[in-house]
Every structure is written in C-alpha cells, then in structure tokens.
Amino acid sequence: MLINKNDELIVEIEDIGSEGEGIGKFQGYTLFVKNALPGDKVKVKTMKCKKNYGYARLMEVIEASPYRVNPRCNIAGKCGGCSLQHLDYERQLEYKQNKVKNCLERIGGFKDEIILEPIIGMDEPYNYRNKAQFPVSRDKDGKVVIGFYAGRTHSIIDTSHCHIQAEENDKIIEAIRSFLEEYRISIYDEEKHEGLVRHILTRVGFITGEIMVCIVINGTDLPHKEKLAESLSKISGMTSISLNINKAKTNVILGDRVISLWGKPFITDYIGDIKYQISPLSFYQVNPRQTKILYETALNYAELHGSETVWDLYCGIGTISLFLAGRAKQVYGVEIIPQAIEDAKRNAEINNIKNAEFFVGAAEEILPQKYKDENIRADVIVVDPPRKGCEESLLNTIVQMAPQRIVYVSCDPATLARDLRYLCDRGYAIGKVQAVDQFAHSVHVETVVELERR
Questions:
Q1: Spans of the chain below 50 pLDDT
Q2: CB atoms < 10 A from the CB of 245, how many?
Q3: Cα–Cα dist 9/318, whole Å
Q4: Distance between CA 362 and CA 340 in Å, rounded?
Q5: How much is the pTM?
Q6: pLDDT of residue 1
Q7: So which residues are the catalytic ones?
Q8: Which of 321, 302, 311, 405 is nearest to 364 (CA)?
Q9: Are 237 and 210 in contact (CB under 8 A)?
Q10: In the Cβ-directed half-sphere of 169, how many Cα atoms lie within 13 Å?
Q11: Cα 49 from Cα 2, distance rounded (Å)
C-alpha cells in the first residue's frame, strides 16, 4: 500500500526515537509519531511521507500503553520543554539508559568492555530547574502572553505555571504580567524587530533561596521600572533585579550589557561546599541537585590524591574545576567565553581556592598551543564539551599529552561515543560509565565516563 500525506491510519507503536517520538510500522512503512509511546495503539494522520519512512500526527489513543501517565502539565504536549512527561518516570530512566548504551554500541562499537552503571534519577522529578527564560509577546487581542515556545516554533504558549521550574516563578510572572498590562509597556515583535520587552530571565538559588529577575529589552530603558522593581522586591528571597540590553535582530536571548535596577548584580548558590556568584550572563547548571551528583561522580572517576595536575576543558564558570581543586595539586581551566572566566576567577577567590588558574580561549586552540609552546603536562584531563563533542585536534593533543586518566562529561551520547572510539583506538580503555538524569521529562541525558591509559 502506498502511504500518502493526510492518510489516516491505525498504528501500533513499538519503539521510541532519539527525540522521544513513538516509532511504529504500517505494512512495513515506518512512522514517527510525536506523543506516542511503545505499547500504544493509535490513530494517526500522516504529515510528511518519504520513500521508506514518514511523520504522522497523533489523532487518538485507541489503546494506551501501560507506561502512559497523565502529564501534570496541561500544555505538556504542545510545549517544547517536556517531550516525555506522558511517560512513567521509571520508564524515562530506562529509555535514557538505553539511549546511552545504544550509542556506545552502535556508534562507538563498544560491547562487553563497558561497565554501564544504573542511571541515577531524581528523587523528585519536578520543580528542579533553577533557571527559566520566558519569551514575551501579545496575542491578536493585545493581551500579554508569557510562557514557552511550542516545539520547533517561535509561537509562544501562555502559561502561569511550569511544573519543572522553581515555584517562585509563578509570583514573578504574575507581577510582571500585571506591570506590563497596567503601564501598557510595548512588547517585542521579532518579525518587525519593534517593541521593547523581549524575555524574562529568572534564577533561583536552591540552597540560599536568593532570586534573580532580569528583563531583556530591545532598548536602553524600561518605562516605570521603579514600579516593577518595587513590586518584585516584595517577593520573599528577591536579591537581584536588572535589565539586559539586547537590540540585535537575533534569536540569542541575552545581550552583553546588564543594568542593575535593585539589589545586587548577582545571586549566590552552592554546589556541595563550593559557593558560586551567578550573574544574568553566567553559565550555571540548571539542576543543582543532580549537578552535585554529576560532579561528585567526575571527581571520583578522576581518582585524585593531592599531587596531580589537572586540566579542565570547557570549564564554564569553574564549577568542575573548583570541585577538583580540593583534591589536586593544581587545576587549569579553559573556556572560550570571557565572562565565564571572570566568573570562574571570582568564584575561586570567594572560596579561597589558590590552586586553580583559568584561561580564555577555545579549548581546541589553547591546549595544543600550550602543549607545543610550553610542553605542559597533565595527570588527569576533564572534558565537558558542548553537544557537538570535542574537535579531533583537541583529542589528538590529549592523546599526545598522555594523561593517566581522562574524565569525559557529556550531554550527547552520540558525540560521546564517537569521541570515546577515537581515544580508545589510541591507547585508552573505558572504565565506568554513569548516566545521570539532569532533565526529567525531556530526552536529554548527561553521562560521565572514566578512561585510563593502557
């Protein structure tokens, strides 16, 4: 049977894809169906049909999977943030564990030599995010809309509550919504590049309880800003209120300039015993409880005894570096973002850590240059690259430096598997592999891998 666009079909879902979509077959033809789960029998309508596979929209769940649950959030199926909230949490963990395992086997070619530890999930997989970015717009009736983008679009779904964000955000959004309506503040239109208020950024210190609000504007000032500051400052824990100037026609949320309106220009929080100052422009892990587990795992895999020289590549604001410094002789961090390195140096200072030094630049440029010009050495190298993984030039330098141990922290199992294959073909062996669920109800998973030179 030839499958065409807009066909309505009955499909049994057999598997789940890398983006959380259900995978089923109709007379041998593969269909990807968002919001469908293995075990579902569903009615679908085809949207895009290629030769051997297609994409279909879920019309009706005829028989529900035993793993299907009712999402807490009434916009979970529309919002781009929680693609797995309709899947039982224990099954989410199983899915992520298998995602890591399958990538290591299929992409990396690793089989029996891997010790894959049981994934570490969350005790409470809700209200775990300490950072939120809310786009702002107006609907066709002129009403203020504050919420999240629908999946793969720039259409904003209005919401007053998000079940994975810090609960303090509800009061913040209510106060800002009232302010924008009362004073008829203009809202940014990204197509016309007109209007003022673009985004709302919030951060909450889970240990300290300190709260930050930053309003991103397409201009240099916010009318009646003192009224907004007065309203927000009444929220318990409020510590920092600021404006961020972003007049660029871009999808990038934050500009480079921050103007403080009330309180401090930063908040503080802890991961373990390490204190961090976090500004609106700082990179800081969004799930501090699981981050502590992730970094403690990395620290354990590094097996430091106090005499080692450690290089921490893609170090951000020094989060892992400062964890490592307590057990190493010397730690060097490398990060391409200057603001992050400023934060890292300041965080070392406020924690009285003297044995951590930081360099601005791309890891794939800094490390080869210092190895060539200064003949630097490392007993342990820690890498925590972006989703694209490590450049081959960086991996080559790491191999030449021949550290006894490498700890690879990854947010993408596919590029992790690729890079591990490169390292293992050049003298390293994988020890333990630990997946950690940092982002419940999404398809994303963090992994820490221990490598030792043979």
A1: none
A2: 17
A3: 52
A4: 13
A5: 0.93
A6: 66
A7: 411
A8: 311
A9: yes
A10: 27
A11: 10
